[in-house]
Amino acid sequence: MEGRVDFAKDKDGKMVIWKNTAGPYGFTTMAQTPFAKKVLRVREGKLVDATPEFCGKILSDESEDYRADQSLLIPENLKKLQTTGAGDFNNQDISSALLSRALQYVFCRRFDEAMKQLDSWPEDDRTKMKIGFADAIREDYPEFAAKLRESAVKK
Q: Which of 35, 75, 97, 105 is close enough to 113 for a disulfide, judged by CB 3.0 to 4.6 Å?
């Protein structure tokens, strides 16, 4: 759920802010909008992104979101997605999980893994999806957004 914010303390007792952040729109229904976690800290009076410090936890079975996505991103479902397409209403959960996982990899600075996830998207509208994904992240991750756009037009 977009906008949800949780406050917690890290192992050193310092405050961290966990925020659900929506991903690219237009590839799923609003009910299945992809999202990923960002973790923020306050440093010198400013919020700074600390997500990579917490990716071991976020991208593990310790995370409920990770487990839920993992249960959907199985080979049979990815094959179904490839065969019937992302536009098939029955594939909304799979599409959302795939985009959510790719977005989480971006937030964790694991760009090669994000690209692999995005390359699992059905080929018939992969170019459109990659361009939309790049547009959604370009402000915070301009280098990866440019690489993503480049891979989309190379098709």
A: 105
- The model's pTM: 0.90
Per-residue tokens: 95: 């599409």
- Dihedral angle over CA of 82, 133, 65, 51, nearest 10: 140
Q: Tell me the two tokens of residue 107.
A: 């937030």
37 contacts 19 by C-beta, under 8 angstroms: yes
The single-letter DSSP state of residue 88 is: S
Q: How many CA atoms lie within 13 A of 127 on its CB side?
A: 6
Q: Compute the mean pLDDT over every residue in the chain, rounded to the nearest whole number.
A: 90
The residue ranges of DSSP E strands in the chain, in sequence order, are 5-9, 15-22, 35-43, 46-49
- pLDDT (tens digit per residue) in 84-99: 877 778 888 999 999 9
The answer to whether 150 and 134 have CB atoms below 8 angstroms apart is no
- Find residue 63's DSSP bridge partners: none
